Amino acid sequence: MSIVSTTEPKSIIGSFTAEAFAQHLASLGALPAWWLDRKRAAYESFTALPLPKRTNETWRFSSLASLKLDGFTLPASRPSGSDHPALNLPRAAEFVFANNQLVSSKPIAADLQRRGVIVTTLAEAAVKHADLLKAHFMAQPQKLGSEKFAALHTAFVANGAFIHVPRGVELSEPIIVIHAVNGPDSAVFPHTLIIAEENAKVTVVDYFVSTDAGAHFACGANDLYAAHGAQLTYVAAQAWSRETLSFQFNSTVVRRDARVQSLNLHLGARQARHESLSQLQAPGGLSEMLALTVADGTQEFDQRTLQIHQAPNTKSDLLYKNALRDKTKTIFSGLIIVDPDAQKTDAYQSNRNLMLSDDAEANSLPGLEIQANDVRCTHGATSSRIDPEQEFYLQSRGIAKSAADELLTFGFFEEVLAKLESEPIRDALRTLIQTKFTQ
Length: 439
What we know:
The protein is α/β, with parallel strands linked by helices. The chain folds into two domains: 14-282, no CATH class; 387-439, no CATH class.
């Protein structure tokens, strides 16, 4: 399969030209033909698909003029002279990726390796675990508007984390994956793929961070697969620089009696779009979708979700909370789809916005598409300001307004944090949130 030429203007392709793609492939070394073919096909899709337009419903309320891909480059080396931030958490294993390269790792324990647990890189999985990678890497088509950018991710992804937990194995400590970027106009494509087989249990924490204040482009994805009876917890904390343009795509597949809990914390970036697709494919499946956002300055956070119930007796529960300061903007657009055969579906969706400024803007578009007649589905959105009496009470006791707003925001977020089973992870997220208030 050859790389197609393109006549699209530079503003659409930006820095990711056919020449840049050819150089990217050349930098990867010897990789299986099927993996290279998949990347070439993705690049063809990227060049063929247009940028989003104002008339696209999936981009309603989004700022489109700032979606420019010019000037970004694939960094030639890992960051030099910069520390990789660490999370204060126990860990069963750890990967640190910087500028698309693996820079350090802590392997999984030998006894877990003997039981079949695989914690490795995408590059190694493409060679040693090709069947699993073929089956699960970006396997679910994008449906929420960013098909062009998802194709760009597949075309340019160089490495990432590959985690496979076999049947009946439970990990007591989380696996930590750090994705760092450094250098002006650097572009990174982080990826984490998690496969939890029947009755397996695993927790994975992704941490996305810039190690300088420069402008970056981050286009990441994660694939979550929970087989029958599996329990998979996924936590992602995004702390890119304030000049970063960020895209992140999540795909979750839940099988019979499996449970997937995902929580995304959004802190960094100039403009960040997060798309999350959850598919409940067998009876008894549960998907819990959680998110927290702290927005200040002129940041824009764009969240698009899709909960698809494809089998009877499934449950999904979505709770997204945003705290908006200064002149920030958030968009939440969520849809619950219940297929005709998905009787006894129990689906819930809630977006709540805490307005800490008169100049902030929160847009909420919850929706339902129900094709079954025996279901319980609810959705809603609220936007409210801090209770003046609560704020006055705190200030009357000598607490400054900024500190009072921080305390009330933590109280607003606690409902979401409390849903996590791990107290150390809750504490780590609280620490990250607090850094946003002290910047």
